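Appendix C: a fully annotated inverse folding record. The material below is reproduced so that readers can follow the format used throughout the book. The structure is listed first as tokens, followed by the designed sequence.
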């Protein structure tokens, strides 16, 4: 998790009187995790954050599972997901289990008429295409292609896009998203051997509290239901906050690859982890430098996890016919590896320019109806070519 940070104006002690210029009290709110036992932040609002005027009937957004027990290598063309004007309408679930849901989105317009809060999951929004700004009560967080925008569960947010051409790869995690344990020391600091450090994390900026009353709609997601909450004050009325729980961004271009004399396995590419899954970043890097090294990955059968790879950009020496936005799924226990002819072709190569995001889950993934609509049905036969 990020380290302690503070923005705006806060009192010298927690839980004491903090008065506005007119003499009234600001409203303190503690946002905590695991009860009061894990990361938290303390925020100070112009108005109480509890001013709910009404709640509309919920809308069901549960993923429609089409394949419950998958034991076939699959490939999906992510860019075939059609753009949609509305952000929430654009979010298309493709793979899901009890720990995560993987979503593709191509929103055209910024969120203007409502706000969104995912009470069910923390979110990792990987920005494949598009620039813009994440707005929260913690401040503004600009994003650009290649960014992992990390949003803890319970954060109310709006996304503003600079242009209508946007492509997002979203991981909903039903547990906190954390740095890999192997890269964190006893003090919670990223260690020297980690492929990124705290300097690479971009924190919220430009805190601009909104002193506004009216009808503000927050779409609250819980248990795959969207609840329209109406609030009497603007959600971003925070004048100051501090703590260790807040959104941040990390660019895949700031990930420093770990290389070796022989091929390095995917754990060296790890970025984050949650309950029963990990995420990784494959970035441009030098290939192995043993005189007899084989640059492409060896055949592999992972008996404990499903492996998902989202292709972002560049050439992938181990595969043929890779497209931007393509997703591959290799299920538990089924061997996969380099396509025919790619091993010999790779010999002597010095570097790769590939860019990809990987998600490995330790529970099987279920395929949604929308995933089947963008599937390449003969992918499992591609090793015969």
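Designed amino acids, in order:
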């Amino acid at each position: 998790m990020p380290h302690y940070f503070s923005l705006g104006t806060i009192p010298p002690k927690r839980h004491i009187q903090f008065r506005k210029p007119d003499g009234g009290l600001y409203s303190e709110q503690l946002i905590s995790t695991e009860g009061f036992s894990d990361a938290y932040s303390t925020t100070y609002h112009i108005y109480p954050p509890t001013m709910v005027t009404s709640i509309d009937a919920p809308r069901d957004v549960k993923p429609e599972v089409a394949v419950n027990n998958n034991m076939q290598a699959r490939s999906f063309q992510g860019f075939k997901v059609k753009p949609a004007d509305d952000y929430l309408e654009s979010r298309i679930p493709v793979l899901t289990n009890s720990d995560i849901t993987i979503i593709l989105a191509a929103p055209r317009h910024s969120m203007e008429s409502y706000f969104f809060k995912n009470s069910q999951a923390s979110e990792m929004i990987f920005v494949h295409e598009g620039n813009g700004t994440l707005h929260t009560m913690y401040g503004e967080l600009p994003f650009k292609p290649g960014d992992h925008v990390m949003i803890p569960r319970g954060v109310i947010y709006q996304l503003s896009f600079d242009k209508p051409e946007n492509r997002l790869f979203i991981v909903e995690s039903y547990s906190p998203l954390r740095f890999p344990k192997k890269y964190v020391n006893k003090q919670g600091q990223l260690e020297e051997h980690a492929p990124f450090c705290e300097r690479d994390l971009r924190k919220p900026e430009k805190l601009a509290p909104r002193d506004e009353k009216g009808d503000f709609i927050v779409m609250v997601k819980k248990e795959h239901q969207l609840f329209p909450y109406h609030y009497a004050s603007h959600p971003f009325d925070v004048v100051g906050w501090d703590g260790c729980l807040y959104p941040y961004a990390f660019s895949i271009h700031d990930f420093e690859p770990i290389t070796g004399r022989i091929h390095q396995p995917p754990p060296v590419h790890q970025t984050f982890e949650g309950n029963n899954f990990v995420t990784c970043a494959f970035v441009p890097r030098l290939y192995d430098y043993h005189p007899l090294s084989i640059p492409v990955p060896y055949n592999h059968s992972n008996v404990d996890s499903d492996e998902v790879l989202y292709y972002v950009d560049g050439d992938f020496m181990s595969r043929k016919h890779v497209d931007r936005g393509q997703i591959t799924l290799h299920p538990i226990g089924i061997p996969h590896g380099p396509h025919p002819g790619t091993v010999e072709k790779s010999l002597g190569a010095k570097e790769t320019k590939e860019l990809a995001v990987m998600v490995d889950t330790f529970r099987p993934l279920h395929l949604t109806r929308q995933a089947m609509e963008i599937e390449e049905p003969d992918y499992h036969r591609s090793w015969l070519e």
